Amino acid sequence: MSQVGSSPEEGFLKISEMFPDIPLGDIRSVLKSVGGDVERSIEELLSYNMIEAEKTQEVAERSRDDDKTVQVESAELEPATPDDEIMSLSEIQECLKKIDFVEQAQELLRIKPENRELLEYYAARNHYKLFNTVLDVLENFDPSLPPENQRYISYKTLAMEGEMQRPDLEKKALESPVKKMEIVEDAKPAVQEEPPITVRPAAHSRVQGGYRLIAPLSNDENDDAGLQKKKKKENRRGKASAGYVINAKSDEMKELQTIRRSNSALSRLPDSFFVDAMKFFHGDVDAVAYVASNIAPLAPKRRINLGESAREKPVDLPAKSVPPLPVTVHRQSAQRSGKSYPDLLREAQRLRSEAKRSNDRTLRPIYASAASQKQAEAFDVLQSEQRNSANSKLIQARRTNQIDFHGLDVNNAINSCKLALSSWWKDEMQARVSNGDNLRSVKALRVEDFRIITGRGLHSAGGVPRIKLAVRKYLKEHQYIFDEEASGMTVTGRRHP
């Protein structure tokens, strides 16, 4: 029996009850496509169920096939890794730290990318310690030689060599025989100890550690042979030392010595470091100062006992007349030099401007660090000046019953107001006790009124009298009785709490 004549809504409701799993939109579209015939719609929807079941089964089978394919492909792509080649998390982190260390040293020492492998060798043989690595590179780095032929002079050897360069020891060296010093090189066997011979200072010895080396030779032939051998070694040093000759009286060395004197932390570095660094950077004082400021905090304290007269002293070079390059200094130096807050603030602003104008990426952070240091020093000096000014104002207020807050910031003004009023009210209460009227509720006139000068705030930011508002709030909160004026208040008493 056909259902064409029935109402479309009745047919739709009937079909939707028969097929609750089919979306209503699909039922309505099927019913519309057959012209509202309910029976044909039912036949179509029965086929719809069969098609959807087939689609669902096909999708499930395809999904299982895809999973198997992915598993096979992943098994083919992943090579079999032995258990001993799998790195743990700690090993990976350690490897990343070493990579970061080499990048830091490369940027600090301006090593070219093609010499990175050689720098990695220096970092490994110094156990990835920045101080030792930098000194080793400055002293021994030779890009023309492979790693296995790089020479090695340790920091301790340099320190002892510096002690042997003391001029006051030359006389003893001339009078008594000494033994030749051992310098161990990686590519050569250790030098055997030779019989005692008399040594004398050589005029051609290169400067190291601030003093001339004492050549362990005994005759002119050995002098010539030693000089030629030494020149060959210097030629092999390559870019690090060739083309630049150390001159203790040059402007660069004078400026470098001025920087050392302005920063006590740099005194922990041996003199040989500055000599080698000047050779390595070809007299670039900015680069030497930047490297020194980075490794000086890592330098160990040198305590080498070779006798009472063998203590190391810095090179005594004359100071340069121009201002030194800004290097971080102790904060107390400004107070010792007597610089005021405005002077330090102007100096900090000047250094900050220099940092913005500088195109040298190694010089910019030095200026910025010095500017921050000057800013901190200026703040400390300001606080010291504020405390001294507040103390003098409190002493004067004790005698005059009046305090002037001009020149103080809000915090110091409120603290001074608290101390001054406390002292004033203590005198008032003592006067009442001495006169037997401390229980009266009316205002006692034993002590003069206390006057507070806050100013009108004309010079404050936005013209707002910040000190006056803060003092008024304090007086109200602590139950003081006062009369407000244009430039301050007059405190006449205090209410019972």
| Rg result | 43 Å
Order of helices and strands: HHHHHHHHEEHHHHHHHEHEHEE
What share of the residues does DSSP label as strand, in percent? Answer: under 5%
Largest sheet, in brief, is: 4 strands, mixed
What is the name of the CATH topology of the domain at 401-494? Ribosomal Protein S8, Chain: A, domain 1
Q: Quick check: average pLDDT?
A: 69
- The class by helix and strand makeup works out as mainly alpha
**What's the N-to-C terminus distance?**
101 Å
Please give the order of strands in the largest beta sheet.
3-4-6-5
**Share of helix, binned:** 40-55%
Let me know the number of strands.
6
Count of individual helical segments: 17
Quick one: overall form? flat
Domain Smr: 403-497
GO molecular function, one term: ubiquitin binding
Protein name: DEKNAAC104969
Biased composition (Basic and acidic residues): 56-70
